[in-house]
Every structure is written in C-alpha cells, then in structure tokens.
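[job 4471] stage=fold_predict status=RUNNING
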Amino acid sequence: MLVSMADASDAENVRAGLSQNESLLLSSLSERGKTIFTLKDAIAELRCSYKYAKVLASNLARKNWLILLRRGTYLIIPLSAGPKPRYTEHEFVIASHLVSPYYIAYWSTLNFHGLTEQTPFTVFVTTTKRAKSRLILNIKYNFVTLNNRKFFGFTPVTIGAYKVNVSDLEKTLADALDHPEYCGGITEVSKCLWNAREKASLERVFSYAERMGNTAAIKRLGYLLETLDMNPDGRMISKMRESISRGISVLDPNMPRRGRYTTRWNLLLNVSREALEERGRGL
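[job 4471] inference complete, writing structure tokens
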C-alpha cells in the first residue's frame, strides 16, 4: 500500500512567515548542518518543553518549512529552495530516518555500487519490522521486511553529513539473487553480476546466499555463472550443487511460470538463455 504524505504533496503552497522561535530553531539547526532533526534536537536548541517543541514543529510543517518523516522526525526545507520548495535531502539519508533497523538494498544499491546504469525511482529499504511504502517528495520508499537470518551484510557510508547503512557489494548481489523482483528482474541481475565480475568475491556471494538460507538464490547464482561463462571455481560449483534443494525453483519470480527445466540446478528457466546473455554480457 502506498501512503502519500500530505506534508510532501502540499509542496506547491507558498510558505508562510516564521515566528521568532521558529526562525531561531531553523537557523540554529542550519548552522550545525542538520537538515533532519528530531523533537529532542528542538528541545535542546530552544530549551523548551516537549509539548512546545511538538507544537512548533507542527506549525512549521503546516507552513511548508518542514516535512514529517516519521513520528518526531522532520526534514527541513531550506530558504534557498524558494517559496515553492522543491528541495530534498539525498533519498538515502531520508530513508535512514524512516525506520530502524534498516539498510538500503536491492536495485538502489546495485546502482550505488555502479553495477547498473539504471536509476530506480524507488528507494528499496530492508528492515526487520513491518512498514508501509511511502511517497515523500515524489520519491517512493519501498520497505522489504527480512527475517533476522537475512539481516546482515551492510556497512555505513557517508552521504553529506550523515552515515547511511547500505548493503556491501556481495550482499547486494546475494539479495538481488534472493529477490530479483526488487532489482528489475533476473536479466538485470545477470547484467549486474557480469559487471561485478572483477571486483566482487563470488565465494562471498555464495557464502552470503548460503547464510541467508534460500537455496533458490544459490541455484540462480550457479546457473548465471555458467550461462555467462564467468569461469567459476569448479570446487565452489560442486559445493553449490550439493547445497541446493531438490524442489524446483523459478529463475525469475516476476515472469510467467512456463519454460523448460534444468535438473542441474533444479530451476524452471522462464527466461531464455539468449536474453540472459544479451542483457548480461551485452552480446
């Protein structure tokens, strides 16, 4: 379900003037380089009560100087954005304030790591909690709930003045093999795997997929490595084949479930080898 926030969709309204304390709060936070703040920050800046800080922040949001990200957390729209604000903080930074715990993943980090030139219009955020997709300043934030077993393999990176959790290179690929539907499909994943061939550890991708406990990801990895002629280590391939389940998994969960089967990897090949080679290796 997509929830469109009134604060964000109302950005076309001309912003109202500021009271003395509203101006003091925004200027103080700006001096500290904070574009996102909490009510605790407001209390510390103004030395006021929680109730007063909440009312002041609500008024600033109503006047289109702030956007509510989550309960008690706000994004500042700076004066430089003009009277009809179209400014936004980096979408990864906004995502980092929407839910906790979290890390940015899937198509978003495939792009971040330079494995695809495609720029998704959705930011994919993993979390161990249930969260509804949201639309903030025309950017969709899609939350994918993972169990604790899969919630690992991320690292903090610096974006502006903030630290943001993103999946590392190998976990990005393992997650993509786990859920190709969040990455543009298996053909896009094949291209990203090929593009990562000289900088990613295939052994670590396999180790991550094994740790995640989804043998479908291992099946997809093994099949793509052989299909793209990526010269995988024979011992690793043998170990991968020993670890997969007997049941049939589907190569691309988003595509119709029809095609031929491969017993080598126990996969329903609902995407042609030619399509994978063409997209993956650019043949």
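[job 4471] summary: Residues 2-87 form a domain with the Phenol Hydroxylase P2 Protein fold (CATH 3.90.56.20).
[job 4471] exit 0
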